[in-house]
Amino acid sequence: MSTPLVEARMLSRHYAVRTGGILRRKFTPLRAVDEVNLSVASGETLGLVGESGCGKSTLGRMLVKLNPPTSGDLLFEGQDVTAMRGADLLRLRRSMQIVFQDPFGSLNPRMSVESIVMEPLLIHGAKADAAARAKVAAMLEQVGLPARAARRFPHEFSGGQRQRVGIARALILKPRFLVLDEPVSALDVSVQAGIVNLLQDLQAELGLTYLFIAHDLAVVKHISDRVAVMYLGRVVEVADKRAIYANALHPYTEALIAAAPAVRPGRVRPPRAPGDVPSALAMPAGCRFHPRCRHVMEVCRAVEPTLTQPQPGHFVACHLTGVGG
Amino acid sequence: MSTIEDDDEAPSRPWRDTLVRLMHHRLFVTGLVLFGIVLIAGLAAPWAAGVDPSKIGMRTRFKPPSADFLFGTDNLGRSLWSRTLWGAQLSMIIGVSVVALNAVFGTIIGALAGYVRLLDKLIMGLNDAMMAFPAVLLAIGITAALGSSVLNVIIALSIVYIPRTARIVRASVIVLREMEYVQAAVAAGAGHWRILSRHIMPNALAPLIVQLSFLFAYAVLTEATLSFLGLGAVPPTPTWGNIMADGRQYLTDAPWIITIPGVALMLTVLGLNLLGDGLRDVLDPRLRIQP
């Protein structure tokens, strides 16, 4: 395999959360993202799924250098960019952009659509002249917005249209890598398909690489080439889309698929995972999933499984399939 | 949910829309008229006051309101019409100055505390220490230490109220700092100055404007309190506070002396509060207390 476009090596993001009383201050580390290894190949769409709070958004934000990692390395085109700052970072930012979930919070209400989409150009040295306006107009057209949208303000748009503005802003710098942080989960189902199709068209036209974050397996199944499953800050399974859906190796992935609404209700499905995600402040010993796992074994309670590759291109962190299991 | 396809071709004018909504807010318009009258009175004082506000007349003492003396005269025979107008001017000068100083320094301090996490604890600790003193008491203390003069009153009132303004700005900045459009600007490579000036401050403006209109009322009221206690502008400079202090002794014999500046003060504060309520309803409806 050639050099991946983006690669995370043992990437972690910990937060110190204050626990205990006012007098006895105690800080417990919250491991939002914990030693994640992940690579995104140029031109592919990697779907990233997991329950809310599993760290998928934090990971996505680290990959576009919005949050600094606590430890680990981030590589872009094989180059270590973990500590990159200043002018180099500014140049790097042209190559990586992000689209957010909330179509209402992600656009500045005081700026017109034209200023919103033009701002990245201005930051990178362009003048607010006719050429910049033409670029913005072309971009708006490309994301399916009418030219007169430029002079309007965000509150005049629907959720789907706002999301298109957010996509236009992310693409105006012609990035190669785009993190899509649940770009459709706040939208009506009827609008979701339009945005997903737009993203696929743009990917084909512009040769983009996507990290598509979602908690909805159906959307991920549609758009992704490969899927990574996260649980409590760790990637527990990564594989080709087909392999994940047909032959999930991790019990958590199985349970996630089971929890999705059935397309053919008659089929035999594995049971869902019982209970709730444990608090990331009180991480279970051994495998993080063992309290909810239906295949739990003695070893799971004591030893945390590492990511292994039982089949080519299919990685899983589970004692059932791991070398040690 | 409206979509742009539904709309006509007219371009968006957010400022104009806000203005139209304000002009349809009855209490705001009432407040604006009351405040406008006082402001115009203050501005017009040099021409409209007629006689010198300090001109003493032994034969015109304690005259009730009449055609000669519209608001009557005080114990020294000075025209209360003239004194009240000049007092209005002083109140407006002090109000505008305190609001302007708060707008500048309250914004800078609040934005620093809200945006620079390292400074937050330090700045807010000092702020809270200042806010622990009752406003009027602190203003009295500062004016007493600096000496009585209009400038010192402005300084004292600014020192008293800037921490309160800064706190409001900080709260807005902390909320806005986490907005996704700010994150998007960071991802695009925006610097701190651009983020603050283009993304955070314009959106923090609404609560600040509301706060400043109430602050104007507090400043006028506190200044009147100080000069009533003899700590404001030095007599014979007329202020509403010292006119009322003079009139207090003659409350039963010449009630107009204390009543006229008192009513002026009341209408000014009422007007500013209505103005602030209207601004809050239109600019920042989240702050509205549900009846």
Task: Provide an overview of this structure.
- The complex is a heterodimer of chains A (325) and B (291).
- Chain A has helices at residues 56-63, 86-93, 113-123, 130-142, 159-171, 189-206, 217-223, 241-246, 251-259, 298-302; strands at 6-19, 26-40, 45-49, 71-76, 79-80, 96-99, 177-181, 209-214, 226-231, 234-240, 308-311, 314-316.
- With 325 residues, chain A is α/β, with parallel strands linked by helices.
- Chain A has one domain (4-95, 175-321): P-loop containing nucleotide triphosphate hydrolases (Rossmann fold, 3-Layer(aba) Sandwich), CATH 3.40.50.300.
- In chain A, strand 7 (177-181), helix 6 and strand 8 (209-214) form a beta-alpha-beta unit.
- In chain A, helix 3 (113-123) crosses helix 4 (130-142) and helix 5 (159-171) runs parallel beside helix 6.
- Chain A is globular, with a radius of gyration of 21 Å.
- Chain B has 291 residues and is an all-alpha fold.
- Helix content of chain B is 71%, strand content 0%.
- Chain B has helices spanning 14-23, 26-48, 80-115, 117-131, 135-146, 150-177, 180-188, 192-228, 240-248, 255-283.
- The relative contact order of chain B is 0.15.
- The A-B interface holds A 61, 64-66, 89-90, 93-94, 96-98, 100-102, 105-112, 116, 119-120, 123-124, 146, 148-149, 151-153, 156-159, 161, 166, 169-170, 173 and B 1-5, 7, 9, 11-12, 14, 179-181, 183-191, 194, 198-199, 202-203.
